[in-house]
Structures are given as structure tokens and as C-alpha cells.
Design goal:
Neuraminidase; 3 domains; elongated
Length: 721
């Protein structure tokens, strides 16, 4: 009995421990995490990191930090903090224990101090400090705090690169394994400054390009010199921070530029891969403003970056207080963090570093650093990438499957599983996961291999099918089966004008009408190949009809919907969940109706001989190529790869151009115009459609304002009464 009670008590204790433990963990991470899907919609995601510890000056037994500006983790996992306001460098070990303070050094037998340092970097037991206030870079020996050298400002007027009034104010430093020194200097807009180990200036690398607005550029060409002087200068954006990866590439962040993250090779070329759904730029979407025009959620602004293993990198967003992590292809892996004053939030994040698997963020306003530990969710992601890069595809697949169990919305997990299947020659399985992961590039590769397998496995059957189709075509053409069927239908549906009993038989009469509709639809297939004679027969011989034109128009609408819904995955980037059949029908019927209405109105004034019914019928028949070409293309698109995409777009373009040519010919024949008058009519029709749309939008806007005004009056009367 005692053992049973003890086990029961132990079980309850464990349950309570786990429950309150989970509450503690949830409370320790007050931010939310998310990722973006293929259509830039944020979707929830598990938290990849939880705040583990917060370290401030008093926690280390020293004065509080004052506006710290940079943090660096060296190869032996020692941590260096640039305490700018206190003009010192703090060194800690990986257990967050104080090891040393660098606040002065011996320079020419006299004690020297830092003045507002902003950056630090260590390599080969040397510490490079960006001593901004003293316009220099100080190089100290980490072991004995001895001065190794001082790198002063570069010589002015060096090949015209450095102006004579240049002031060297280094902010951030990065050194490669071959001792090339990269410096971000305040007021420098030409890129990163590059120096030799001895401090000789080599030039600028990675200068961001600026694209001025075309209208402003045109105005600058015609403006006077006085107006040009008043115009704002188009200056490249200044870099905010940099980091060096294991093989010597420079990762840098630029302020207020679309491509805010760059990966610069030794030649100064940006080689960052932006092959994800969207370029690495932080948050997407518009920003919100309050009533006074102040930004509530300003756009992302990367202030620092850290290069990690296997091409992964994490960037720090100072505006929104978030950490964005991307893989080597630019795919977003996870997001965490937020602005605030609670534990795990940032008041003004300034720098980011990685300590083993942990992430450290420096807060310059809160004067502290926050250490984040990865969750199993983040570990699975990193292990999935690691296993794949090392050729362990089955292990990688298992890790990505673990990720999917925690986040079914993570497209990258589907891609990871698909690539594991692809590299183990399971092409059919890889297609399923690439499709769910919206990865069209890898889907195309898998489709090409899977298609080759199907052809090789069913080669004999394919040959038999082709021979059978050719045999049937030969029989049809030799015995003229279509003409025989047509003659038979004419006899069956013929009604003698003198036989009133046959005319009164409803089945016979309806069969006759149905045959005429079918015949007019078949006539539309002849018309698209012989447009001039076809439209003449349509007008003079009445070989077409309103009913068949309506059927063609309905088929065009259905084809348009089928194209959006059933086109092959590679060529269909639309979100099928947003498909609205009513809107799709309106998107076809509205321009079609406006074309017919405006064309009739204009041709009436220009002595056109076509009636409204003839315009409607001719325009409908002119859209037949959209049906004839697009329907087979829908089927073919499921077998095309990205390399064969020119054929797909050639078919689509052919359908549009063919229909446009038919509508042009139909307008010319129906109204008995020449070519020049037809061109003028079509241009006038298009302009008229634009005018009608403008008037419609104006009327709708006025109607909205009037109804809003009436509603406000109604609310005011109700409240006062």
C-alpha cells in the first residue's frame, strides 16, 4: 500500500513539475515566432530559441555597461563586448564569467586609452579595436595587453579615392584568415574599406548600387544648375556591420536597401544566393502608421549579421527586434525576438553573435546581453542541413520529418525531405514533397528524372499507342469519316417545309437546332484558319449564331478557370485557396462586354456596318484559339520542366496573338473597314474602355462618399436622439 501511494505521489509530482516547467518556459519567451510562405503570408511557427540568461555589468561584478556597441566571439569561445560609453573592452569566457577588462594600454611609454570604441575583432591572439573617437584602429596582444600596432587613417588623395578632407572614423572591423582587413567607416558610402595587414589602403569593395527614380533622373537632365544644387544627392547606402565566415567571405548588412544582406568575395562581388521564395530582407508587407504619421511597425533594418556553419547566417533587425536566420540559398529558416522590456525582448538591439549553438544579442539601450538557447525545433533544422551537406540523406530526411511534426507549415522541411528522396533516386516521392514545399526548381529536376524512368519502363506501350493513333488517323482520312458523319446528321435532322407533322415533332425540331449549334461550333474551328472568308461567311451566310457565340464565351471562361486551377505545378504559382469562380468569370466577362459595347458605340459613329449581335459573335469566335490551345497546354504543363518552359510560354503567347489577330480581322470584315481604319478603331476602342473604367471608378467613389456621409448623419442623429 505504501509503495502504491509513493508511486502515485511521485507521478503527480512529475506531472506538476512538467506543467509548471512548461509555464515557466512559455513565460520566458514573450515573443512569437513565424515564417513566410510562398505567397509572403506569415504563418505561425514553433519558437526556435528561448532566452537562457541575461548578463549585465553588475552580474560580472563591474560597473553597468554604457551604450555597448559590438560583441564578438573568438575561436576559443571567449566573448568580447565593446562598452563604448565606458571606453573599454570586456572579455568573458563562455560561462559568462569576467576574465579581463581592456581600458588602457602602453603607447610610447605612456598610458593610452580608447575614445568611444565601436567595434572589435580578434584573430591569432590579436584584438583589433575600432577606436572611433581617436580615428584609428588599435591592435593589441590579447595575452599581455601589449600594443602591436596602430592603423591610422589612409593617406589622402590615394589615386583619387580618398579626399583631402576625409576623416577616418572606423566603426566595425573584420579580418580574414589571410590578414585582409575590412573596415566600415562613418561617412563612407563607397563600400567597405580594405587594408593590408600593415595598414596600407587597397580600395573599396562591395559598393552598393543606387538606382535613382527615372522621373527624378529625367527632371535632373532638364533642370537648371540652381535647381540641381537644391536636389538631394543620390548616395549609396552605408554598411552597418560585417562578419567573416570560415573560408574568408564577408557577410555585410546595409541600411535601408532592398538587398540589405550581401556576401562579398575577395574580388568585391556580391555572391549571396537569393534562391528562396523571397530575397533575405526581413519582414515583408506594408508598415502601419498612427494618427500622427509615426511608424508603428517600421520596415526591417538589419544592424548586424553573423555567419554560421554550412552557409547559414543570422541577421539582426534593429527596428523590430527580430533575428532572421537563412540558409545558404537564402531560404528563411526561422524568426524570433521582439522589441520590449521583458526578459527575452530587446529595447534597442545592436549586435549579434553565435556561441556554439547559442545566440547572443547585445542590447545597447538596456545595457545587457541576452543568451538564447536553441529548442529541439531549431536543432532539427540545423541537423537536417548538416546531415544533407555531409551526404547523410536518410538521416537528413529523419530530421526534416521531425521538423514537420512540429510545424506542418514549414515549406523548407518538405524541400529537405524531397531532396533526400531525390538524392536516393526516389523520384516519385520527391515530387510529392517538392510540391508541398512549393519548390519548383527541384520539382523540375525530379520530374525530368521521373519522366525518363516512365518512358524507359513503358517504352513498348508508348510505341503501340503511337502506332494505334496513326492507324486511326489514316482510316479517318482515307474513308472521310467526318464528311460521312456530317451528311448522315444532315439527313437525320432535315425537316421538310411541306411536312407539317414532322415540323411539329419536338424531338426532331430540337435535334435540328442542336445540330445547327454543333455545326456552327465546328465552323468556328474552320474560321480560325481562314479568318477573312470565315468572318465573311459569319456575316453574310449566317453560319454562326448567338447561341454558339455564348457557348464559346462560356468555354473561354471555363478555360480561364481551368488554366488557373489545373495548370502544372511548375507554371502555376497562384494560391489556389484564393480562387473565386465569380470573380474569375467577371474578369473575363467585364472586359469582353466593355469591348463589345465601346466597339459598337465607336463604329456606329464611324459608319461601321456591323450590328451589336455581329460584333458579339465575331468577338466570341475570335477567342476560339484560347480554348483550342490552352486546353491541351494544361495537360502538357504537367509534363514540362523548367528547361522546357519556353515551349509552354510560346503556346500561351500564340493563343493570345492568334486571338488578337482574329479579333482584328473580324472587326475589319464585319464593319467593311480597311486596315488603317481598323487599327484606328481598335485603338479608339481600347481608349474608350479606359475612359469607361475611369468614369465607373469615379462614380463608385462618389457613391461610396455619399453613402458614408449619409451613414454618418444617421449615426449622429441616432446618438443625439
Amino acid at each position: 500500500m505504501f509503495k502504491f501511494r509513493f508511486r502515485y505521489f511521485l507521478f503527480c509530482f512529475c506531472i506538476m513539475f512538467l506543467y509548471f516547467g512548461m509555464i515557466g518556459i512559455a513565460a520566458a519567451a514573450p515573443y512569437y515566432s513565424y515564417i513566410y510562405d510562398f505567397w509572403e503570408n506569415p504563418v505561425p511557427a514553433p519558437k526556435p530559441y528561448f532566452p537562457e540568461a541575461i548578463v549585465s555589468g553588475p552580474d560580472l561584478g563591474i560597473d553597468e555597461f554604457d551604450n555597448p556597441q559590438d560583441i564578438h566571439v573568438c575561436q576559443n569561445n571567449n566573448i568580447y563586448i565593446v562598452d563604448s560609453g565606458n571606453n573599454r573592452i570586456i572579455m568573458m569566457n563562455q560561462e559568462m564569467e569576467l576574465k579581463k577588462i581592456y581600458d588602457s594600454f602602453l603607447n610610447d611609454n605612456s598610458q593610452d586609452i580608447f575614445n568611444n570604441p565601436n567595434g572589435v575583432f580578434t584573430i591569432n591572439n590579436l584584438m583589433y579595436v575600432a577606436d572611433t573617437g581617436n580615428n584609428r584602429i588599435v591592435v593589441l596582444n590579447i595575452n599581455n595587453n601589449g600594443l602591436e600596432k596602430i592603423l591610422g587613417p589612409p593617406e589622402t588623395d590615394v589615386e583619387g579615392l580618398i579626399p583631402k578632407d576625409f576623416v577616418f572614423r572606423p566603426l566595425k572591423i573584420g579580418i580574414t584568415s589571410d590578414q585582409r582587413i575590412y573596415v566600415i567607416s562613418r561617412g563612407v558610402y563607397d563600400g567597405l574599406m580594405q587594408f593590408t595587414p600593415e595598414g596600407a589602403f587597397l580600395g573599396y569593395v562591395g559598393a552598393p548600387r543606387v538606382s535613382p527614380d527615372p522621373i527624378d533622373y529625367l527632371w535632373s537632365q532638364i533642370a537648371t544648375q540652381e535647381q540641381r544644387r537644391r536636389m538631394s544627392l543620390y548616395l549609396p547606402i552605408q554598411y552597418s556591420n560585417l562578419d567573416i565566415d570560415d573560408i574568408g567571405f564577408v557577410y555585410a548588412t546595409a541600411l535601408e536597401v532592398e538587398n540589405a544582406i550581401k556576401k562579398i568575395n575577395p574580388a568585391g562581388v556580391d555572391i549571396l544566393r537569393r534562391e528562396g521564395f523571397h530575397p533575405p530582407m526581413g519582414d515583408y508587407g506594408s508598415t502601419l502608421e498612427d494618427d500622427e504619421g509615426n511608424l508603428i511597425f517600421p520596415p526591417s533594418r538589419f544592424i548586424d549579421i553573423v555567419a554560421r556553419e554550412y552557409g547559414i547566417y543570422s541577421a539582426l533587425d534593429s527596428n523590430r527586434g527580430r533575428v532572421f536566420t537563412y540558409d545558404h540559398n537564402g531560404n528563411l529558416l526561422y524568426v524570433f525576438g521582439m522589441r520590449g522590456n521583458q526578459k527575452g525582448l530587446f529595447e534597442l538591439p545592436r549586435a549579434i553573435e553565435v556561441l556554439d549553438k547559442k545566440i547572443i544579442v547585445l542590447d545597447s539601450r538596456a545595457n545587457q546581453i541576452t543568451v538564447f538557447s536553441p529548442t529541439n525545433y531549431a536543432r532539427y533544422i540545423h541537423q537536417g542541413i548538416e546531415f544533407f551537406r555531409n551526404g547523410l540523406y536518410d538521416d537528413s530526411r529523419i530530421m526534416w520529418e521531425n521538423v514537420l511534426r512540429k510545424n506542418v507549415n514549414f515549406d523548407m522541411a518538405y524541400t529537405g525531405i524531397g531532396r533526400a528522396y531525390l538524392y536516393t533516386d526516389n523520384h516519385e516521392e520527391s515530387l510529392f514533397y517538392f510540391r508541398n514545399g512549393q519548390n519548383r526548381k527541384d520539382y523540375s529536376r525530379a520530374l525530368e528524372r521521373y519522366r525518363s524512368e516512365l518512358i524507359l519502363d513503358n517504352f513498348t506501350l508508348i510505341i503501340y499507342i503511337i502506332i494505334s493513333i496513326l492507324f486511326l488517323l489514316t482510316i479517318v482520312l482515307k474513308f472521310k469519316l467526318f464528311m460521312l458523319i456530317e451528311n448522315k446528321l444532315e439527313k437525320l435532322t432535315a425537316i421538310s417545309s411541306s411536312d407539317h407533322k414532322l415540323q411539329n415533332k419536338a424531338p426532331k425540331r430540337y435535334l435540328n437546332k442542336l445540330y445547327r449549334i454543333v455545326k456552327s461550333l465546328f465552323f468556328s474551328l474552320k474560321l480560325i484558319f481562314h479568318p477573312v472568308g470565315g468572318f465573311w461567311d459569319l456575316k453574310q451566310e449566317k453560319k454562326g449564331g448567338i447561341i454558339s457565340a455564348i457557348i464559346i464565351l462560356i468555354m473561354v471562361n471555363l478555360t480561364y478557370i481551368w488554366v488557373r486551377q489545373y495548370t502544372g505545378f511548375i507554371f502555376n504559382p497562384r494560391d489556389l485557396r484564393d480562387l473565386n469562380i465569380i470573380i474569375e468569370f467577371i474578369s473575363v466577362l467585364l472586359p469582353f462586354g466593355l469591348w463589345c459595347l465601346v466597339s459598337w458605340s465607336l463604329t456606329t459613329l464611324m459608319e461601321g456596318k456591323g450590328s451589336p449581335g455581329e460584333i458579339f459573335t465575331a468577338t466570341s469566335y475570335g477567342l476560339v484559339p484560347l480554348i483550342v490551345i490552352n486546353l491541351p497546354v494544361i495537360i502538357l504543363s504537367h509534363g514540362f520542366t523548367l528547361q522546357e518552359s519556353p515551349f509552354y510560354y510560346l503556346f500561351i503567347s500564340t493563343a493570345i496573338l492568334w486571338s488578337g489577330l482574329l479579333i482584328f480581322t473580324g472587326t475589319m470584315v464585319i464593319h467593311d473597314y480597311d486596315v488603317s481604319k481598323t487599327i484606328f478603331t481598335i485603338i479608339g476602342t481600347i481608349m474608350g474602355i479606359g475612359f469607361v473604367l475611369f468614369i465607373g471608378l469615379l462614380v463608385f467613389s462618389i457613391y461610396t462618399q455619399i453613402t458614408s456621409f449619409i451613414y454618418d448623419i444617421y449615426i449622429e442623429v441616432i446618438l443625439r436622439l
